[in-house]
Amino acid sequence: MMSFYFGRLVEIFPFFLTGLWMTVKIAFLSLIICTILGFILGMMRASHNIFLKRIIGFYVAFARGTPFVVQIFIVFFIFPEWGLQLDAFPAAIVAMAIMGSAFVCEIVASGISSISKGQWEAAASSGLSKLQQLRLVIVPQSLKVIVPPLVGQYVLLIKDTSVVSVIGVTELTRVGWVTVIRIPEGLMVFALVGILYFMISYPLILLSNYLEKKMTV
Question: What sections of the chain are H helices per DSSP?
């Protein structure tokens, strides 16, 4: 019986590759968006503007303090009531970007805050504007603090793509659930799902470990 199930799994393996490709697309697009948005928010959160810090702090607290599945439901089911209708795929990207940018924001803000006050003063004495100070002096120095945990966060975000299956996106986890209906051997099916997730996550894990050692030195 196991050999029969295995044969069936081999037959529908292209279906898993389709789900893997959807997972990669969601992860790639959302990581780009959340990185850009997270860096902008992180620099604003590290500023001395109390109003901005509190607003961004509330955003970060909400995104980090609520389950991701709740955020997906808000984007997919509540946003349309406010006039913003999104299909499942863009809704998944938006939800991933909202959550991911909050974590990236905290990483970036912590990295910027680790730079000594003297560096800010030196940059200011050179006649640079606040934005130039950040872009040319502070952020480049803070990258050794930011990059290792940032890459590690990317791994977590890739795994979180599994949650978007709840709104009907046919990514890797949903492919697994659909396959279990045809092949009632859950261990075999989800072992394959786990292996495919591992294949796209492990290179980033290695990169995170390498960057952590390299930048520490």
Answer: 2-11, 13-45, 50-65, 68-73, 88-113, 117-125, 130-132, 139-160, 172-182, 186-216
